[in-house]
Design brief:
The protein is an alpha/beta fold. It has two domains: about 210 residues; about 80 residues. The chain has nine helices and eight strands. It has a six-stranded mixed beta sheet with strand order 1-4-5-6-8-7, sandwiched between helices.
Length: about 300
């Protein structure tokens, strides 16, 4: 695929959580996710391989709360990973991250196992808007001992780590505090059209761009993205729309678009074979006006 092909396509925004999850959480494209995670974790730990996990956590009690994650995975060293793309600041990132981590820990221990067997859990939240009052774009949260007047502030445990990344602060953060791949991936997520051609020589970045181009060219994927975007807009305006209903509507719209394109291609072939407009309309399902337009 040409390195410049993406410039001719109206690329879907990676900052949309549906697009993000489809792009980085797709099986057979795990190495793209591994590259992104290593750019964020910067060797702590270095991930060699991952396996994608279920993202749906149903409620465990009648009045409980179910959770739908964007991406969930387990690394080669057993670390559980949760990656979330957050388009808007809802003022509850910390609480949501803690709740999701708690759900990831459910049923991790079997009878007779030691508590030290609980795997490490890393939660990563990539936010399009500012969600903290801090100046840098990347923040790590772990369990800490607070100053008690006698002992110093120190890390208590790194079993549960949270990363909050604020894309809006990327440019304001001194480059010496960010590794190169981190900056490239955040630039890609924020605006894939802004990626310089030389960065597309990186295999994983090019693979992500190629996949995004394919997704952006697919009418059904685009319709599903639009359905999710409508839902997000409705949530922001205080309306309540079920995500599943929006997806089903988007799929139906996308299928209609696809069927219409197939009908046009069929009609073109029939016209090239010399069939009359009436016959082409009859067998393609298009109107006479559509057929006349194709002939012109």
């Amino acid at each position: 695929m040409s390195e410049t092909r993406h410039e001719k396509i109206d690329l879907l925004p990676v900052k949309n959580d549906y697009v993000f999850a489809r792009l980085f959480g797709r099986r057979s494209h795990e190495r793209v996710l591994v590259c992104l995670l290593n750019a964020i974790l910067n060797g702590k730990p270095h991930i060699k391989d991952i396996s994608l996990d279920p993202t749906e956590y149903k409620k465990t009690s009648q009045n409980g709360k179910s959770v739908r994650l964007d991406i969930a995975a387990t690394s080669d060293d057993g670390t559980r990973l949760h990656i979330e793309m957050q388009c808007h600041n809802e003022g509850n990132i910390g609480d949501r991250a803690s709740f999701c981590q708690a759900r990831l820990r459910e049923d991790e221990l079997q009878e007779g196992q030691n508590y030290s067997s609980i795997p490490n859990i890393i939660s990563i939240w990539i936010c399009d808007e500012s969600v903290t009052k801090r100046q840098s774009c990347c923040h790590e949260i772990v369990s800490m001992y607070k100053d008690n007047g006698v002992d110093p502030i120190e890390i208590a445990s790194e079993k549960m780590r949270q990363f909050i990344i604020e894309l809006s602060k990327l440019e304001a953060t001194p480059k010496r505090f960010l590794n190169d791949m981190f900056s490239i991936w955040m630039m890609f997520i924020r605006d894939p059209n802004s990626i310089p051609p030389e960065f597309l020589k990186i295999d994983e970045v090019k693979e992500a761009m190629d996949e995004l181009t394919v997704m952006s060219s697919d009418p059904i994927t685009r319709a599903e993205y639009l359905a999710r975007q409508r839902e997000l807009n409705d949530i922001r305006s205080g309306m309540s729309v079920k995500y599943e209903e929006g997806i089903e509507k988007g799929k139906a719209e996308g299928e209609k678009i696809g069927e219409h394109k197939k009908a046009i291609e069929t009609a073109k072939k029939m016209l090239n074979d010399g069939l009359s407009a009436d016959l082409v309309a009859k067998y393609s399902g298009l109107s006479i006006a559509d057929i006349e337009g194709l002939k012109k």
